[in-house]
Amino acid sequence: MAKLLFRLGEWSVRKRKMVIAGGLMLLLLVAALGLGLGTSFTGEMTIPGTKSEQAGIILNEEFPSSGDGGQIRLVFKSETGTLESDSNKNLIAKAIKEVQSDSSVTSIVSPYDAGTLSADKKIGYADVTYSQPASEVTETSKEHVLDVVKSLNDRGMQTELVGSVAFSELEIGVTSEIIGVLIAFLILAFTFTSFLAAGLPILTAVVGLGIGMMIIVIGSNVVSMASFSITLAVMLGLAVGIDYALFIMSRYRQQLAAGFERNTAMAQANATAGSSVVFAGITVIIALVSLSVVQIPFITMMGLAAAVSVFVAVLIAVIFVPAVLAVAGDRISPARENKWLRKMSGRKKTEGTENRWGKIVTRKPWLTTILCIVLLTVCTIPFLHMQLGLPDSGLKSTDTTERRGYDLLAEGFGEGFNGQLVVVARTEKTEDPQAVIAKATSYIKGLPDVASVNPLIPSPSGKAAIITVLPKTGPHDIKTTELVQTIRAEAEQVMKDNNVEIMVTGGTAVNIDISEKLDEALPKFAILIVGLAFVLLTLVFRSILVPIKAVLGFLFTLGSTLGVIVLVIQDGYLANFFGIPEPGPVLSFLPILVTGILFGLAMDYEVFLVSRMREDYNHTGDAVKSIRSGITYSGPVVSAAGLIMIAVFASFIFAGDAMIKSMGLALAFGILVDAFIVRMTLVPAVMTLLGRSAWYLPKWLDRILPNIDVEGESVMKDTHSVHTSKEESESSSLMSKEKSD
Question: Domain count of the chain?
Answer without folding.
Answer: 3
